[in-house]
Structures are given as structure tokens and as C-alpha cells.
Amino acid sequence: MSQAVCILGVTGSIGQSTLKVLQQHPEQYSVFAVTAHSRIQELVQICKQYHPKIVVVPAAKVDELQQLLAQQHISGIEILSDEAGLIAVAEHPEVDVVMAAIVGAAGLLPTLAAVKAGKRVLLANKEALVMSGDIMMQAAREHGALLLPVDSEHNAIFQCLPEHYLQTERNGQPKLGVSQILLTASGGPFLNHSLEELQHVTPAQACKHPNWSMGQKISVDSATLMNKGLELIEACHLFAISEHFVTVVVHPQSIIHSMVQYVDGSTLAQMGNPDMCTPIAHALAWPQRIQTHVPPLDLFVNHQLDFQAPDTTRFPALSLARQAMQEGGLAPAILNAANEIAVAAFLQQKIRFTEIATVVEHTLNQIQNSAAESIELILQADQNARAVAQHFVLNKGS
Ligand code: NDP
Ligand code: MG
């Protein structure tokens, strides 16, 4: 039977890759609902090709969308708006699968709504899990949601873990013979830059990732290694493992997407060409496998695999994230919010690349941490952290 899919963030890089996978399997999947934020023209093209039943845009974009749809003679699409609209499609009774691919904290409530509605949730929006960790995982267990990782590293780890690993006791200890997780990082475009050179890199350089084509925010996060920091936190929650058992390994070729080590000396790796269609297809069809257009790995071409330890002096964001995970409570949400503000400020050339981590560290130091007992407290911490980070950005140096 065909599965109805809702794509939160359809106009983004992950949203587009998701459509590419779905397009290859029209009998198995239908595009039921899609959401966009600013790229309305692109959304109209998607409507023309996929005929979703519902689309969601900000209220301020509804008129523009209606006009463009009418111009293209596209009818019969229900338009919802704002966060209420995002939540409505995420939990819609006719939806089977939700792709959570909104970037940043804006994806938290819609993703949580999908989880609480017991959907198969394909998680790309790592910030949502970083912010709400225990609450999101608890909601998935309570409501029988299948929360499957799309982030390539976590999808790789999921593929290398023993079957039923996620259903066993969640106490922070590795189990079923697992000894540790090796989380790979490409190192980003500035892997070999000196600290001095890092002071002067531009947003355009930061957004040009050597192996992956991604949205701006995650591209900058990859360049600072904050992406790996967020992924470290993501891994701890998804796999119920303490950060102590997650080692970051820089692997510039991005052919191995992560590894799991076992007590008997085995190390299992998942490998493939760097294309998000592979983890998306895996999460869509798991435990089945479906075809993608991604060519098989040619080891005679990709014959060199290098590994090194991350340099946290040049890339302090990784240490800040590890510390936030150790501290727990609201610290990861504060880290995430401050990072979102700092990345936006860097993209607008208000701060230097190296100041992104400074803004995050300052914000973490300014705000009193406490237990992340409810979504309301997490959203409050997110708002406070944004205000502190914004203030620091505007007044820096004074
Ligand atoms: P993009 O910036 O390419 O896309 C983001 C999507 O979210 C767009 O559809 C955008 O709409 C929408 N959006 C942005 N802001 C809001 C908002 N305030 N409210 C509602 N919707 C919003 O990002 P990516 O696709 O690269 O990344 C999406 C998520 O997936 C991120 O969390 C990222 O960390 C994660 N991820 C991405 C990977 C990749 O390869 N790209 C790999 C692993 C994880 P519009 O474009 O219309 O403005
Ligand atoms: Mg990743």
C-alpha cells in the first residue's frame, strides 16, 4: 500500500533530495503535504510536479502562493500557515511518514508533533533533538513513533549497530557487545587552515563544502565543527549512550559515514558515496531497502581513506558542544540557540568566523543552566540564549 509522506522543509537541500528518492518510487510513496518558508516559486514548481494535498507557508506568504498557483492553473491544494499549520500536517491522521527537514529550532514543535502522533519520523533536523533530547526520545517511546536518523553519520551508526539495539535499556552505557561509536567528520572546507587564516574566511568560502552540497546553516556548522558537536549530542540521545563513548574521527574523504566498535575487536563501518539520498532511502524503507540513483562506491577510484583527530584549538565549537552534553539540562538548547544567532551574524558579515564559538561560549557562561523538564522551559532557554547572543553580537568589542 502507498505511504503518505509529509516533507517539512521541502524547498531545502534535504527536502529536494527526499523528492528525488520518492520520485523513483511512485507506487510506494505519495507526497501528501509539503512546507516552505521563503522559496515560494520553488514551492509552486513542487506543487505542479507532485500535487500535494496540503502546503504550509508563513501567513505573510499565503497571498503570493495563491496568486502563483492560480497563474499556473493549479487547484485543489489546501493552504495552511505558520507553526499551527506545520504542526497540523506533521500530525495529520492521513500521514504515515514525516521527513523533518526544517533547519534549526523552528523545526522543534512540528517534529515533536509528528513523534507524538506516532509517525515514522525521518530526522534530519538535528537541532530539534539537540534541544529537546530526553523529551523527544521519551515521546517516541510513549507514542510508538519510529524515529529514524537521516543525518548520514547517525544513519551509518544505526546500520552498524546490532538489531534491536534501540529497544534495549537506555542507561548511557554501550550494550550488546558495543564498546564505542566512532563519529566521522569531514573536517569541512578549512580543515588545514591556520588560526590566523580562519580569522579572514568569508561566508562564501564557508558555504563551499568539499564533499556535500547542503543548506547554508549546516555548511557553516560543518566548517566550525559545531555540526559535529551537534551530532555528538544527537548520537547520545538517539543511541542512549554517554558522550564518553563517542569519539570524533576526522575523515576528509567522507566515504566512511561512521563506525561502531565492538568488544571483540571488530569495527563496523558504513560506506558510500556522499549523497544524502542514501540515508533518506534507508530511513524511508527500513527494514527494507529501496533503490536510489546513487552510484555504488568504486574503491578503485576512492582508494585513499585518511583519518586524524580533530583539532579543538582551531575548532573550539566541538569542545563547547561536548561540554554542553556533559552538563546536560538546558545547556544543549542554549548552545544551539546561540549558534543559530552567531551563524546568521557571520553570514551577514557582522562577526568573524572565529567569533562564532566566542558568541556560543559567552552565551553558555551567561545563562544559568537547569533541568530541561518541559518543552516550555526549553523554548524559554532558547529565547533567552538568542537575546544574550544577539546582544553580544551587537555590542562586541565594547
Ligand atoms: P536548507 O537551508 O537547505 O533548508 C531548510 C528548509 O527549512 C527549507 O525548506 C526552508 O524553507 C525551511 N525553513 C527555514 N526556516 C524556517 C522556519 N523558520 N520555519 C519553517 N521552515 C523553515 O537546509 P538543509 O536541507 O541543508 O538542512 C535541513 C536540516 O537537515 C538541518 O537541520 C540540517 O542540519 C539537517 N541536515 C542536512 C544535511 C544536508 O546534507 N543538507 C545533512 C544532515 C542533516 P525555504 O527554503 O522555503 O526558506
Ligand atoms: Mg551529518
From TrEMBL:
<feature type="binding site">
    <location>
        <position position="151"/>
    </location>
    <ligand>
        <name>Mn(2+)</name>
    </ligand>
</feature>
<feature type="binding site">
    <location>
        <position position="13"/>
    </location>
    <ligand>
        <name>NADPH</name>
    </ligand>
</feature>
<keyword id="KW-0521">NADP</keyword>
<comment type="similarity">
    <text>Belongs to the DXR family.</text>
</comment>
<feature type="binding site">
    <location>
        <position position="127"/>
    </location>
    <ligand>
        <name>NADPH</name>
    </ligand>
</feature>
<dbReference type="InterPro" id="IPR003821">
    <property type="entry name" value="DXP_reductoisomerase"/>
</dbReference>
<dbReference type="Pfam" id="PF02670">
    <property type="entry name" value="DXP_reductoisom"/>
</dbReference>
<dbReference type="InterPro" id="IPR013644">
    <property type="entry name" value="DXP_reductoisomerase_C"/>
</dbReference>
<feature type="binding site">
    <location>
        <position position="152"/>
    </location>
    <ligand>
        <name>1-deoxy-D-xylulose 5-phosphate</name>
    </ligand>
</feature>
<dbReference type="InterPro" id="IPR013512">
    <property type="entry name" value="DXP_reductoisomerase_N"/>
</dbReference>
<feature type="binding site">
    <location>
        <position position="11"/>
    </location>
    <ligand>
        <name>NADPH</name>
    </ligand>
</feature>
<dbReference type="GO" id="GO:0030604">
    <property type="term" value="F:1-deoxy-D-xylulose-5-phosphate reductoisomerase activity"/>
</dbReference>
<feature type="domain" description="DXP reductoisomerase C-terminal">
    <location>
        <begin position="271"/>
        <end position="387"/>
    </location>
</feature>
<keyword id="KW-0479">Metal-binding</keyword>
<feature type="binding site">
    <location>
        <position position="125"/>
    </location>
    <ligand>
        <name>NADPH</name>
    </ligand>
</feature>
<feature type="binding site">
    <location>
        <position position="12"/>
    </location>
    <ligand>
        <name>NADPH</name>
    </ligand>
</feature>
<feature type="binding site">
    <location>
        <position position="231"/>
    </location>
    <ligand>
        <name>1-deoxy-D-xylulose 5-phosphate</name>
    </ligand>
</feature>
<feature type="binding site">
    <location>
        <position position="153"/>
    </location>
    <ligand>
        <name>Mn(2+)</name>
    </ligand>
</feature>
<dbReference type="Pfam" id="PF08436">
    <property type="entry name" value="DXP_redisom_C"/>
</dbReference>
<protein>
    <recommendedName>
        <fullName>1-deoxy-D-xylulose 5-phosphate reductoisomerase</fullName>
        <ecNumber>1.1.1.267</ecNumber>
    </recommendedName>
</protein>
<feature type="domain" description="1-deoxy-D-xylulose 5-phosphate reductoisomerase N-terminal">
    <location>
        <begin position="5"/>
        <end position="133"/>
    </location>
</feature>
<feature type="binding site">
    <location>
        <position position="153"/>
    </location>
    <ligand>
        <name>1-deoxy-D-xylulose 5-phosphate</name>
    </ligand>
</feature>
<feature type="binding site">
    <location>
        <position position="228"/>
    </location>
    <ligand>
        <name>1-deoxy-D-xylulose 5-phosphate</name>
    </ligand>
</feature>
<feature type="binding site">
    <location>
        <position position="14"/>
    </location>
    <ligand>
        <name>NADPH</name>
    </ligand>
</feature>
<dbReference type="Pfam" id="PF13288">
    <property type="entry name" value="DXPR_C"/>
</dbReference>
<feature type="domain" description="1-deoxy-D-xylulose 5-phosphate reductoisomerase C-terminal">
    <location>
        <begin position="147"/>
        <end position="239"/>
    </location>
</feature>
<feature type="binding site">
    <location>
        <position position="209"/>
    </location>
    <ligand>
        <name>1-deoxy-D-xylulose 5-phosphate</name>
    </ligand>
</feature>
<dbReference type="InterPro" id="IPR036169">
    <property type="entry name" value="DXPR_C_sf"/>
</dbReference>
<keyword id="KW-0560">Oxidoreductase</keyword>
<comment type="pathway">
    <text>Isoprenoid biosynthesis; isopentenyl diphosphate biosynthesis via DXP pathway; isopentenyl diphosphate from 1-deoxy-D-xylulose 5-phosphate: step 1/6.</text>
</comment>
<comment type="function">
    <text>Catalyzes the NADPH-dependent rearrangement and reduction of 1-deoxy-D-xylulose-5-phosphate (DXP) to 2-C-methyl-D-erythritol 4-phosphate (MEP).</text>
</comment>
<feature type="binding site">
    <location>
        <position position="231"/>
    </location>
    <ligand>
        <name>Mn(2+)</name>
    </ligand>
</feature>
<feature type="binding site">
    <location>
        <position position="227"/>
    </location>
    <ligand>
        <name>1-deoxy-D-xylulose 5-phosphate</name>
    </ligand>
</feature>
<feature type="binding site">
    <location>
        <position position="215"/>
    </location>
    <ligand>
        <name>NADPH</name>
    </ligand>
</feature>
<keyword id="KW-0464">Manganese</keyword>
<feature type="binding site">
    <location>
        <position position="126"/>
    </location>
    <ligand>
        <name>1-deoxy-D-xylulose 5-phosphate</name>
    </ligand>
</feature>
<dbReference type="InterPro" id="IPR026877">
    <property type="entry name" value="DXPR_C"/>
</dbReference>
<keyword id="KW-0460">Magnesium</keyword>
<feature type="binding site">
    <location>
        <position position="186"/>
    </location>
    <ligand>
        <name>1-deoxy-D-xylulose 5-phosphate</name>
    </ligand>
</feature>
<dbReference type="InterPro" id="IPR036291">
    <property type="entry name" value="NAD(P)-bd_dom_sf"/>
</dbReference>
<keyword id="KW-0414">Isoprene biosynthesis</keyword>
<feature type="binding site">
    <location>
        <position position="222"/>
    </location>
    <ligand>
        <name>1-deoxy-D-xylulose 5-phosphate</name>
    </ligand>
</feature>
